[in-house]
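Input chain follows. Return structure tokens only.
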Amino acid sequence: MNPATEIYDDSILANLDGVISRSAAEDILALGFSAEQKERMSLLAAKARSGELTQQERDEAESYERISSLLGILQSRARIAMTRTSS
């Protein structure tokens, strides 16, 4: 992903409207990668470190990175929502 896309994504995500309910926040916080996906990400990272990624693997690794980033942002918003609903 190019830096301009990341800037747009961050800006759009930071300015989303809406309220996350406690239940939705709990569900978002429960999301994560499967054991198989984590194993695949580890393999891709090892191949990247050794400079052995094919273009298809590079694209796959970038997809994992993008999804991981989005999941992290959503979970951060969910944690904020949890603190607001517990008050």
